[in-house]
Design a protein that fits this description.
- By secondary structure, this protein is mainly alpha-helical.
- The chain is built from six helices and two strands.
- The protein has a two-stranded antiparallel ribbon.
């Protein structure tokens, strides 16, 4: 399972163009983690059927694993903006596509989590959908 730290480290490598074994400085890791949490919290207000709980670096992401690459691109883009780095056009385009992909995956219609009139908690948990 992917952790928040995996996403933060990948974004930091893109931001600094550093080697994969270079550690992320603590202050920058904290900033990137805050940006990641803010983004994930914002998904519900954008129409996604997703409920987020604040992550620490060691926490597993509660999103489908096929979103990992998209979250890395989004965080790299947001991190470059945050740290005042120039944003390459390719990353800006990738982040836009990634945002659309994330919302597309997490905008789960209710009929996907309902079977025979009963809400299916297994399907709901796959998409981290609030059944309340």
């Amino acid at each position: 399972m992917t952790t928040a730290n995996d996403i933060v480290r990948s974004a930091w490598r893109r931001i600094t163009v550093s080697a994969s074994d270079e550690p992320v400085p603590a202050a920058e890791a904290a900033d990137l983690l805050e940006i990641l949490n803010d983004y994930l919290f914002s998904l519900k207000s954008r129409g996604a059927s997703y409920v987020h709980a604040r992550l620490d670096l060691a926490d597993d992401l509660l999103t489908p694993e096929d979103l990992d690459g998209s979250l890395k691109a989004i965080l790299a883009f947001e991190g470059m903006e945050h740290f005042g780095k120039p944003i390459p056009p390719g990353l800006a385009l990738a982040a836009t596509g990634a945002r659309n992909f994330v919302l597309g995956v997490l905008m789960v219609p209710n009929d996907l989590i309902v079977e025979d009139g009963v809400r299916d908690p297994l399907l709901a948990s796959r998409y981290n959908v609030d059944l309340g």
